[in-house]
Amino acid sequence: MYIPKVNEEKRIPVIHALIQAHPLASLVTMSSSGLFASHIPMVLEADGSEFGVLKGHISRANTQWRDLTPDVDALAIFAGPQHYISASWYPGKHEHGKEVPTWNYAVVHAYGPLRVIHEADWLLKHLEGLTDIHEASSAVPWKVSDAPETFIQALLNGIVGFELPIRRLEGKWKVSQNRNERDRCAVVEGLDALNTPESLAMKSLVEKI
Question: Which residues does 17 contact at the CB level (< 8 Å), separation at least 6?
Fold first, then answer.
């Protein structure tokens, strides 16, 4: 990924926080016919390494797990807050007109070898962990054990798991760092005026510069 120095995010806790807050990843692998992508939730776990390991699962019917080029690392892309930035927000638009719109965003790329897993115990533990994470905010959290055991076993037969030990981790925060303070304040005001969840999330990132 092209990352200008001003947009580079190297703090591992910050990068990990984005992955955990936006866990739906685009998992890209090389196949015999070219690049292949699936869109799946992934869980980040500590494994004693610098960057951690990503875990997930896909349908057994999905050919991605069957057709991997093992000597080419997989890529998991996590997209965080993003928003259109209007040129009309910049004071310069009204002073000299030499402004153009842009798009702000935060994104993480995680690279590593992909290991396919078929073991039922691993799959069950993974599904329980994934469910517990995303049910935590529910008033009455659903658990895998709420479903009949025979039903869950049948579902396990229809998926395969994977682990992606992260060997390279890139973070790009394009959040108006290239603008002066006056322009950044104008961007914050423009995003605040929209008052949407998306605009306020981006506003928060711009304010942290």
Answer: none
